[in-house]
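Changelog entry

Holo records now carry the ligand SMILES as an explicit input line rather than a separate metadata file. Below, a converted record for fe (ii) ion, shown in the new format.
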Amino acid sequence: MVVKCEENRNRKCRVEKTAAPGKNPPFLLAHLSDPHFFSTAGTRLPDFFNKRLYGYLSWRWHRRHEHGDKVVQAMIEDLHRQQPSHIAVTGDLTHLGLPDEYRRAAEFLRRLGPPGWVTVIPGNHDAYVRSAWEKGHDLWAPYLAGDDDLASFPFIRQRGDVCLIGLSTARPCLPYLATGSLGKDQLRRLELILSECGVRKVCRVVLIHHPPVAGVVSWRKRLTDHREFCEVLQGHGAELVLHGHAHFASCSFVETSAGRIPVVGVPAASAFGRRSERRSEYNLYRIVRESQTWRISVKRRRYDVDKNDFSNRDGWQTLLP
Ligand SMILES: [Fe+2]
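Structure line, unchanged by the conversion:
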């Protein structure tokens, strides 16, 4: 079993205690997304002679009232109390892909936990302009690497009987657009990974920033090759798909001949939620092997503005089978 919890040794890491295959205790996976750290520290005016100008104005007029560090801090504390086996973060850690935002996001990840315990994929805001991702992603590299230590997509991290598959849909795009795409190479490699993991009968959890099903977000925010992605899922299977980007909770399913695959998104991690459906939440997934199948349940932890704390929105809901 591949598990690294060498840092923060005093933090409990349930997966380290897993028993032999087939007798594992529940794997508890936490999923959060879109903290959108914002900082212009150290920038110069030319840094904004591009799409960042629109993003900056959007922040000043609108978004700065929706996102708050205190919400993220409360989430980190609540996550640690829940003691998940692993944490997945599905992108948009930065708002404009600026250097100090990358640094703040790296600090956030360090406070969440060690790289072996936290898996990250990028979102469209992390590649806001062409140079942003190239300059910034080294700061997060240990969180983005697969078990082979290579930082390429898709990557695989296996923890017990659960295989996390990280994808990147982060591509710079024109102002007003927030689209993403996987591309043929990534889709082809994803086919191979899903197929191989399916043969090994591990629980396949796919991490992707953009919602991969039609109708969750508008045309200008869509995943351009969502049909091709769904065809790969239908052809090769998966147990769970987790995404961000929409900034509200959503749950849909991809129908396959072998059953349906849940596709679940969460609101932005830092959102105060002036509109309640957009208030910060993260999800906890309880994953249990049952004979030849998987039982997956989800519990939503939601931010309470008055208490500055998170609590259960409802109880455990069964997603699979
Ligand atoms: Fe976002």
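Spot-checked after migration. The radius of gyration is 18 Å. The helical segments are 52-61, 69-82, 99-112, 130-136, 141-144, 184-199, 226-236.
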